[in-house]
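FORM 7B - TANDEM STRUCTURE REPORT

SECTION 1: FIRST PROTEIN
SEQUENCE AND TOKENS:
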Amino acid sequence: MIVFQIVGYSDAGKTTVTAELLAALAAKNYQTATVKHHGHGKSLPDPDYNKDTWKHRQAGAEASLAVTETGYQLTAANSRAFPLEKWLEIYKLLEIDVVLIEGFKYADYPKVLLVRQTDDSKRLLTELTNVRAVLYASEESGDSIKTNFNGYAGSSFNTAGFINWFFQEYIAEGD
């Protein structure tokens, strides 16, 4: 299973890049999954409010799983920390080919860093590990990154080059 992160500050374009990479992988029939860090300090909306699974959790279940012939939905209000690695174990059970992690920037998986300003890249390139690619929003940032970074560097407004690089680096030849 390939695990790759898309990281950067808020409004850097992480969700756009994630969606474009997912579409490219799906077009080649890869089984994909995502993990999104929801770091806004708010609770997630309850997708099954007032349904049986919601009632199960209200009665004390830590989690509830609804299963149909075409899919399933897990909802949980677990107050215990559940590390990223455990979610990846679940995806292994599901035989996922590629997991894209949006956020969790301090995790040590290979990642692309999206930056809006030169200061962002200077700070994050020293703080983060395993940065393999950088997508920048301004030519000023791009010039600085190309001078000081050894991995892939390209414009966040043209992700085709990044997607091609990702396939060359992480996906088996012939795909």
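SECTION 2: SECOND PROTEIN
SEQUENCE AND TOKENS:
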Amino acid sequence: MPGSLAFLLAICVLCLHQQMAQACSCYPTHRQVKFCSSDIGKIYHFARKMNLIKIYTPSSGAACGIHLTLNEEYVLGGRVNSEGKFMVRSCDLVLEWNRLTVSEKYHIEHLYKKGCGCKIKGCLNHPCPAATPKECLWKDVGNTLPCLPCKDGTCQWTCDFPFPNQVGLKNAIKP
């Protein structure tokens, strides 16, 4: 009995001295949702559209702060706080431009804005509930396609929207 009491006491002491780890966690969210929910009316592709902009972010990753590399191009979306400062956190839209495919760049520059009237409903656990006509069910975290309004009034991942071929895609992306 005294041995088990000493063991229990040792565990309690260890628990008291253990530091609490804090971490930022973000629920998986489709890029178009992040794009459309950004306070900035236009998502900035910074190196091309602006010479200088101040971005505010929490100072640590545990508080959802972001770390940007100098001379890299980013697509950023975030919120404007009550002081008028552009705040970006890791759960917001934070993409390195050079890591995106040509199709992903086209979605960001041309299509996501057209789909802001559609709702993307996350469904990462199956079975998924039925989508309403104005919803696209997001079942795959790797899916970055836009959810777009179709001619029949529904929203779908694919509808009669003109998608350029690879050559057209490259010409549609700003250099």
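SECTION 3: OBSERVATIONS ON SECOND PROTEIN
Strands lie at 44-45, 74-76, 79-80, 86-87, 94-96, 119-122, 135-138, 148-149, 155-156.
The two ends are 75 Å apart (CA to CA).

SECTION 4: SIGNATURE
Preparer initials: ____
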